[in-house]
Each structure stands twice: as structure tokens, then as C-alpha cells.
Amino acid sequence: MRSAFDRLISWTGLILAAVLLVAGGLLTWATTFVGGMVHDQLSDQDITMPSGPALESLPEADAKALEPFAGQPMVTGPAARAYADHFIQAHMNAGSTGLQEKVEALGVDTSAWELPLTYSSAGAVASAISADDSLSDETKAEATELVNTFRNDTLFKGNTLRGLLLYGFAFATIGTIAGIAAVAAFVAAAVLIVLGLLGLRNARKVDATVAAAPDGGATPRGPSTAPTAG
Predict the structure, then answer these.
(1) 3-class DSSP state for residue 157?
(2) 70 FRET partner, CA 20 to 30 A, in 159, 192, 203, 205?
């Protein structure tokens, strides 16, 4: 009975180990495929991470986030995220401030602006300028053109590129997680294989012990004693 139970548990563990080995193989393929795709797609962009004066012109927090990748080709998910969040975003934020100064110089009240501008808020700003009756038509046209140009050329294109780079970072992260899961699957499979083999070995030992025992391991019984009548 004991050996049969050992065999059941052992074979169950070995089957689970086989499943984990297959899962580990698939996860390894996934992390390799995703990593290769992310690398190739980012390489096609031909972007070199900023360094030197390009970093010095950024806010301190942004420059610090970009320093580990300075001067390197942008071919990894973390580099893509750093470029999107700390270079493109920083320039879009700085562009909002520069736009505000240009529009103010035209005599437009920008005190209600919420910086940094977003694609949506820049559209609202352009509409507000067009509806401001205190401004001349010439001023309205010039200020509106400045806002719309910034909205389309900087915010729209910048957000589109940021989105693509952050998608690359997301897929790279998925690939990293798949790689970690693959290692965990292989380790778990190895443990189950060892335990399964030890279980089968123990079952064989139990069978050998039972076979070597007198009467096949049956427990001898003493002679029965008939009850004595009182």
C-alpha cells in the first residue's frame, strides 16, 4: 500500500515536471522573441540617447534619469522609457513655457493657462484666443497660429512618439517577466524530477523489503484461544 502511494505521488510529480518543462520552453521562446522584436524595432528608429550639453539643458531629475543611457543607441525598453518620459516630455513641457512667453508678447492674457499644455488643453487655449473680443483680428490670427502649430507639431507628434516608445517598454517588460517565469518553471521542474525519482526509488525499496520478509511481509498471528466456559 505504501509503495503504491509513493508511486502515485512520484508519477504525478514527474508529469507536473514535464508540464513545467514545456511551459518553461515556451516562456523562454516568448522572452527571446519579444526581446528581439523590441530591439529590432527600436534600432530602426536610429535614436541615440542624449549626452553632454543635451543632458545639461534638461531639469536635474530628467538628466539624472537619462545619465545611465547617455550616448548609447536606444535599443532597450528601459532606455525607451527614459527617452519618452525624461527627454521628449521635458521638451514638450519646456515648449509650453516658451509658447506662453511668445503669446504673452503679443498682448494675450495667459494667466489662466495650466502648464504644461496637453493636446486637449492647447485646443481649448486656441479656441479661447479666437473668442477673445479684446484682441485684434491680427493678434488673434498670429496667436492662434502659434498655439495650433505647437499643438500639432510638438504635442501631437511628441505624444505619438512617446506612446510608441512606451509600448516598446511595456513589451520589453512582458519579455522580462516571461524570462523570470521560465527560470522559475525550470527550477520547479528540476525539484519535482528529483523528488519524483526519490519517491520511485523509495517505492522500490519498500517492495524489496516486503518481498524479503517471511511470508511476503505478512504479520504472523498467534494461535487463537477458545474461550473457557466458566
Answers:
(1) helix
(2) 159
